[in-house]
Amino acid sequence: MKSANIKRLGTLTLLLLSATSQVQASELFPTLTSSKTIGVQVKIQSFTPIDAEQIKAAGFTFVRFGVWSNSLGGKAYQKQVSDAFAAARSAGLPVLMTVRSTKPLTTSPDNIDELATAGEAFANAVMNLEVSYRSQLVAIELWNEPDLETYWPTGKFNTTFVPFMSATCKTLQGKPTTTPLIGFGFARAPSASTPSTVALNKIVSEYPKCLSAISYHPYGMTTAQISNAQAFIQQNFHLPGVISEWGISALTSNGGIEGQASKIAKFITDVKKLNIPLTSIYEWKNSDSGSNDREKNFGLLTSDGQAKPAQMAVKTQLNAE
């Protein structure tokens, strides 16, 4: 009898925790509901209203795309960004906008003052984008995979990221936006052994009101590992964890297009159970510009828009809610 009572109490506790998590999810990102938290990544140069309609029909509730702060001075690029927002708006899809620079922030990465100045300039670019597109934004993500050299062109992440992003957060925290800010799209989930944790400890402790959530990309992680990462983030930074990018390429080693479909379906099932407030799948279409076969074949559709089994698997999962 005692064992049965304990089991019932444990089940009740889990249900209460689940309900609490869902309430927090909808409060964290007001444009989403607690049961509709999964979106998909697109590229602004190829994203069209037709894509947006298909994405909406598949059951996704937002799109994620990147905006490069170093390109914002060009009118052609500005139009590309505004066209992407217009395509999303045509289908009623809000946007998770990831902002970063594709060029080094300074010619003197050891100069802390220059990094701070670059951080302030970046924050101003983010605020200008927020003013222009706030009605369409789920959230703004500050950077993408800075813990990888490819996406942190300034170099020396361990010594340059904190001065830059601290200045960014100081500026943003001083002028609060209505749009949630998340960061920093880490390639590896923060844990006790990662450089991301060292950086977050400094930034979040100094600027606790800068971020609404910690974002990361759990490629190759099991459900248990993702669950542990979520707990680590909450316990250490007192913020929820969100997944701003995850995908599986349709390589033969992954089971081809059928293996891709089954793995994506399982991933969606798992993140629903974990009540993660926001998850973005990589990506809507294959990328012919990818540097190798793996990078070219993450799409739910082929590059010319033909549906792969993964597209139907996603549609089945998301429209069953």
Backbone CA Rg: 20 Å
Nearest-integer average pLDDT = 92
Strand arrangement within the widest β-sheet reads: 1-2-3-4-5-6-7-8
Q: Low-confidence stretches at least 5 residues in length (pLDDT < 50)? A: 1-23
Shape: globular
Please report the number of helical segments.
Answer: 10
Query: What's the main sheet like?
Result: 8 strands, parallel, barrel
* Estimated share of beta-strand residues: 5-15%
What is the CATH topology assignment?
A: TIM Barrel
In CATH, the homologous superfamily goes by the name Glycosidases
Tell me the helix content. 40-55%
CATH top level label: Alpha Beta
Task: Note down, in words, how this protein is organized.
The protein has 321 residues and is α/β, with parallel strands linked by helices. The chain has one domain: TIM Barrel, CATH 3.20.20. It is 48% helix and 13% strand. It is built from ten helices and eight strands. The chain has helices at residues 2-28, 49-58, 75-90, 112-133, 157-174, 195-206, 223-237, 256-274, 293-296, 309-318; strands at residues 38-41, 63-68, 95-100, 137-142, 181-186, 213-216, 241-246, 279-281. An eight-stranded parallel beta barrel has the order 1-2-3-4-5-6-7-8. Helix 7 (223-237) links the parallel strand 6 (213-216) and strand 7 (241-246). The model is unreliable at 1-23 (pLDDT under 50).
